[in-house]
Design brief:
The strands form 2 sheets. A 7-stranded mixed β-sheet has the order 2-8-7-6-5-3-4, with helices on both faces. It has 22 helices and 13 strands.
């Protein structure tokens, strides 16, 4: 990617500044599609005649279409959130999306391709195969594979599906072909590495492989024996649903506390694994999170991988899934233009060369190491519709070894023939059936314009991290007076990614419960709940850290707010305002100064309203 490419040229713009380009390209693409229709066997008889179009019912139907579309426009304009704003919407993980991806989705949608099989999506299935290769390369999976999914929840479910099926294969082999596992104990079979399991079945005949899969977890056999699924307290709620749907069960979930930086506490994880091993309880897998959706934290993936290696030497092995639905594209920050992972000692130099950061938002070694270690996990969730800046619905998953697909594969003869190579038979390897090829077109275009390295997506992702650190710095100095009370903003600890959480604390507030109630009011006043969102001058989101979900991890923050441990234990929860700062615009000093002043005024006004002054 050329150093002079301007990311601002890739968005329609918060005030539709690139309207002319958008209209021109959209018109050209629509003309291309219409010409394609007209030119297909031009001598064919038109299905809709001139007489048809003059008929009263035809005219009335056209009028009805116009009327309904007018109503649609009205409802969308009055009921949509203006997250395209450069600095008014800082809430959920939504932002301006890439103009080329919007155009690509719209264009491809005119053909309505279905990526479940090649015959219904020749162009977009090939694009999805290339996207899967992009994902594998992003995570340094040398023999990896990937594909798009509806969202991160489906991708997480698929990650658990892989772990469950693969972990069950050795027991299935023992049931069907006991001579092939050499008399190994169940404990040994349940602690085989993914690589060893794949090697075990690699030379099986197709019929033998099918017999083993029939005896695997897909039959319902042995699922309770597969062991515990370990997650951090910061897990996404989709993991609860995944355990339910997969049949593994919620009783098998073990939640590990997080540290003061809201990363999984690796020391506690080690203690829990030691306890399970002592009990001879297998470990199905461990989930590590890169980009938590509440705090913007990046787990110590490197230390969790090291922990697995330590236990593997003692005969215990577990699958690792990285939930990088939010933070996955952030790995582009560390990939040089030649695809190599940039050494930490050279990171600042390379970032300066590509004008990656404009403020003091240097990436810590912990975050760099966590991202690097993703190359050692078995599967990764990544969502283009988050930090890929692609329209919904575009989730994704990548796996370390392409062979892993064979363990979970199914075949539907009416869609594809067994033995045909992917992408012809994508539907055989995924949870979904029919899926929009337009999504693949949107992601494919994004990846071709913005390479998944420091020169492309690295620069785009850095803009959001830049803005987040600027905003947190602004909050750390922000205070105002309401009546006779000074109100100070107290931000949460420095995020690893682009999430900023904070609380506004009035002087002399009586209790944590009272402060939580005030924060809830501020959210009500600064969200879609307070009249038409389009008229709201600052829109944000909120979250709550409770003892049930976080243990005592929030205690240092609660004490920073001015409350005691007793107050924390009595209340059991702290409510925060929360902003996923994805805007690609606010690295400009003047623009940030304008919007930070606007946000400060809005917060002051809302606080005065909430306090009744």
């Amino acid at each position: 990617m050329s150093a002079d490419i301007d990311v601002r040229a890739l968005f329609l713009g918060d005030k539709a500044e690139n309207e002319e380009t958008f209209r021109s390209l959209l018109g050209t693409l629509i003309d291309d599609h219409i010409g394609w229709r007209k030119n297909y066997i031009a001598a064919d008889v038109p299905a809709i005649s001139q007489e048809d179009r003059r008929a009263p019912a035809f005219v009335a139907t056209s009028d009805r279409v116009q009327s309904v579309m007018t109503e649609l426009s009205q409802r969308m304009r009055s009921g949509s959130i203006p997250w395209n704003s450069a600095g008014r919407y800082w809430g959920q993980m939504n932002s301006e999306t890439l103009m080329p991806s919007i155009l690509a989705y719209t264009f491809a949608m005119l053909w309505n391709p279905n990526n479940v099989a090649l015959e219904s999506s020749m162009a977009t299935s090939a694009m999805e195969a290339e996207i899967g290769a992009d994902f594998a390369a992003l995570f340094d999976f040398k023999d990896g594979w990937g594909h798009l999914s509806a969202d991160g929840s489906i991708a997480n479910l698929e990650g658990l599906w892989y772990a469950r099926c693969i972990k069950s294969i050795p027991l299935a082999v023992k049931d069907v072909f006991p001579d092939k596992v050499g008399g190994k104990s169940d404990w040994e079979l349940l602690n085989m590495s993914v690589e060893d399991i794949l090697a075990l079945v690699r030379d099986f005949t197709p019929d033998e492989y099918d017999a083993v899969k029939a005896a695997s977890s897909r039959s319902g056999r042995n699922i309770p024996q597969l062991g515990k699924w370990i997650v951090p307290q910061t897990k996404h709620y989709s993991w609860v649903k995944a355990l339910d749907i997969s049949g593994v069960g919620l009783d098998q979930m073990v939640a590990i506390p997080v540290d003061v930086h809201y990363r999984m506490d690796v020391d506690v994880l080690k203690t829990e694994i030691e306890k399970l091993v002592a009990q001879k309880t297998p470990i199905l897998g461990v989930v590590t999170v890169v980009g938590t959706t509440e705090e913007g934290a990046v787990d110590h993936v490197d230390k969790i991988v090291e922990l697995r290696e330590e236990f593997a030497r003692k005969g215990t092995y577990f699958y690792i899934h990285c939930d990088a639905a939010y933070g996955g594209y952030g790995r582009a920050l560390f990939r040089d233009v030649d695809g190599t992972y940039i050494p930490y000692e050279k990171l600042a130099e390379v970032h300066a060369q590509h004008n990656v950061f404009t403020s003091d938002a240097a990436v810590s070694r912990d975050v760099w190491a966590g991202y690097k270690a993703i190359e050692n996990v078995e599967s990764v969730t990544i969502d283009p519709h988050k930090m890929g800046y692609v329209p919904y619905a575009a989730g994704g998953i990548a796996i370390k070894h392409k062979e892993m697909r064979n363990v979970i594969s199914y075949f539907a003869p009416y869609v594809f023939e067994k033995g045909i190579q992917a992408p012809d038979m994508l539907g055989a390897y995924i949870l979904e059936g029919s899926k929009a090829g337009a999504t693949a077109a949107a992601v494919w275009v994004a990846h071709r314009i913005l390479p998944l390295d420091v020169s492309g997506y690295g620069r785009l992702v850095a803009k959001s991290i830049d803005a987040a650190h600027r905003f947190r710095e602004f909050l750390s100095k922000f205070s105002f007076t309401v009546g006779d009370k000074t109100v100070k903003a107290v931000p949460l600890s420095r995020p690893d990614f682009n999430m900023v959480d904070w609380v506004l604390v009035p002087e002399g507030i009586g209790s944590l419960a009272e402060l939580n109630a005030l924060t809830e009011k501020l959210f009500d006043y600064s969200s879609y709940l307070d009249g038409p969102a389009y008229n709201n001058r600052f829109i944000t989101s909120h979250t709550a850290f409770s003892t049930a979900d976080y243990g005592d991890s929030p205690l240092p923050f609660v004490e920073k707010l001015g409350f005691t441990k007793d107050e924390w234990e009595k209340t059991g929860s702290v409510t925060l305002l929360r902003a996923a700062i994805m805007t690609p615009y606010l690295t400009d000093d003047a623009l940030f100064a304008f919007y930070s002043e606007q946000i400060g005024s809005a917060l002051q006004r809302r606080t005065a309203e909430a306090l009744g002054d």
